[in-house]
Write a structure and sequence with these properties.
Helices cover 71% and strands 0% of the residues. The protein is mainly α. Helix 2 packs across helix 8, helix 3 packs parallel to helix 8 and helix 11 packs across helix 13. The termini are far apart.
């Protein structure tokens, strides 16, 4: 019986795959990504006003967008564990330094630099967790889809809990408490996530040079135990037309969410209830999380490409009513309806990234899409904010509608087969032991090894038969020796 039919599915299959501790560590370690932007806005706003707070939060976002692919690439090359441990320590240090700088009265340029450093060192737990789940699931498409859906839903829950927790901490404890809690969570839960036994080692091969290492950690060059130079694999290309398209869709999705969020905040401000914006926006997080969990429990049989087209088209239809919203209750119902399509859309997006991205650079591919979401949010905020200030909340909602409609059109007109499965890595065996190990993993016989052994057997048989024939074509039978043995062949 195949694994896909024998293994449990849905939530049972996911928890059987990674254990109960992995989702807990992954959720708590990614919570700071939702705490930090809101916590930064609240902390800087209390001292320097909303203008400076927006600039510092933007520096944090842009730093995270730039640093994400770098951390993902390093995790592929060196393994998740050492990269995460270094990133968690550096990020916590940067967050604590940012809090100290604000409380110490340092000028705005120093705050911008520290916020950028905090963004650059964000450990990228969400994308690395998705890469880890994909690796754990192996070739089981059903289980892999459930695991990626579950992990994407954890992101949605995190971005629902994070802002609410930041607001509660700022009001009940201190405006700086959200960033302090984020730093502690990064140090504790991030370290536990890094040290979890499921953390993969190096997977991405490097370019072959004398004295360098391949992706498997084999030193290439001269000396005892050196592998032949020809056995090293070339550096696997990351970008493909499919991944470029997925990155563009991620940017548009981030812009849609940011435009809607800006419109909600502008509407609440115009109604004299700025504090209600968080509650209105929470409606989207709630419905998106529920839709994500339903997707895990009942994934359906549609291909991820088909599901992406359907969900982004549904999201476009549900976003258009925002243009007619004029009150907070209506806004809550409208964004709640939009949220029912957000998580399924993101689930399909990351599922396609797992298919089109090379396995050796999966962490980098996942962080690229995460950076695309952040970049879209930052760009849309820069556009929607001034538009809302000049023309009202509907102008910001128009940015959201334009982004998601563009995304739906791009997904609809993309030619069939725009996302193709990345070719599976097939390294050449360095020894007979490696070839035997590959046969045991695949459950069959290595065809290249069989052909090689057949050639050796044929060559040996031919040589032996030739040696047994004399020049006149008669068999060369050794003459008996006086001691009972045989004379050796000439």
């Amino acid at each position: 019986m195949s694994r896909s039919t024998a293994a449990p599915s849905g939530f049972r299959g996911v928890f059987a795959l990674g254990g109960g501790a992995l989702p807990v560590h992954a959720f708590l370690a990614r919570l700071p990504a939702a705490l930090c932007p809101v916590g930064t806005l609240m902390l800087i706003n209390t001292r320097d006003g909303i203008g400076a707070a927006g600039a510092v939060a933007s520096a944090l976002w842009l730093g995270q967008a730039v640093g994400g692919p770098v951390i993902g690439r390093s995790a592929d090359r060196r393994g998740h564990r050492p990269v995460l441990l270094v990133a968690c320590g550096a990020n916590a240090l940067a967050l604590f330094a940012l809090v100290s700088a604000v409380l110490g009265g340092l000028p705005l340029p120093a705050l911008l630099a520290l916020a950028a450093a905090a963004g650059l060192t964000v450990p990228q737990v969400g994308p690395l967790a998705r890469a880890r789940w994909a690796r754990l699931a192996g070739e089981d498409r059903v289980l892999k889809g459930a695991a990626l859906s579950f992990d994407t839903t954890l992101d949605e829950v995190g971005f629902m809990v994070g802002p609410a927790l930041a607001g509660i901490l700022a009001v009940t404890v201190h405006p700086a408490s959200a960033l302090v809690v984020a730093g502690v969570l990064i140090l504790v839960s991030g370290t536990l996530f890094a040290l979890h036994p499921t953390a993969p080692g190096p997977t991405a091969p490097t370019r072959t040079r004398a004295g360098t290492r391949t992706g498997a950690g084999t030193r290439i060059g001269t000396g005892i135990g050196a592998a032949p130079t020809g056995t090293a694999r070339p550096l696997v290309r990351l970008w493909s037309p499919g991944l470029v398209l997925l990155f563009a869709l991620a940017v548009l999705q981030g812009a849609a969410m940011s435009g809607a969020n800006t419109g909600v905040n502008a509407l609440a401000e115009s109604r004299g209830e700025p504090g209600a914006a968080g509650l209105v926006w929470a409606a989207m997080a709630v419905t998106s999380s529920v839709a994500g969990f339903v997707t895990v429990a009942r994934p359906g049989s549609a291909d991820p490409g088909v599901r992406l087209r359907r969900t982004v088209a549904l999201q476009a239809v549900l976003t258009l009513p925002l243009l007619a919203v004029s009150g907070l209750w209506a806004a809550a119902f409208a964004v709640g309806a939009v949220g029912s399509a957000v998580a399924p859309h993101l689930i399909a997006l990351f599922a396609l990234a797992e298919r089109t991205g090379p396995a050796e650079r999966m962490a980098e591919a996942m962080t690229l899409l995460g950076s695309g979401l952040i970049l879209g949010q930052a760009l849309a905020a820069a556009v929607a904010g001034p538009l809302a200030a000049a023309y009202g909340h509907r102008a910001a909602f128009a940015v959201a509608c334009g982004s998601v409609v563009t995304s739906a059109v791009v997904a609809a007109v993309a030619r069939p087969g725009w996302v193709r499965d990345a070719p599976a890595p097939a390294p050449a065996p360095n020894s007979q032991h490696d070839a035997g190990a590959r046969e045991s993993r695949t459950g069959g016989v290595d065809a290249s090894r069989t052909r090689h052994e057949t050639r050796n057997v044929t060559r040996n048989v031919t040589r032996n038969n030739t040696e047994d024939i004399t020049p006149d074509g008669k068999p060369d039978i050794p003459a008996p020796r006086t001691d009972g043995g045989r004379e050796p062949r000439r």
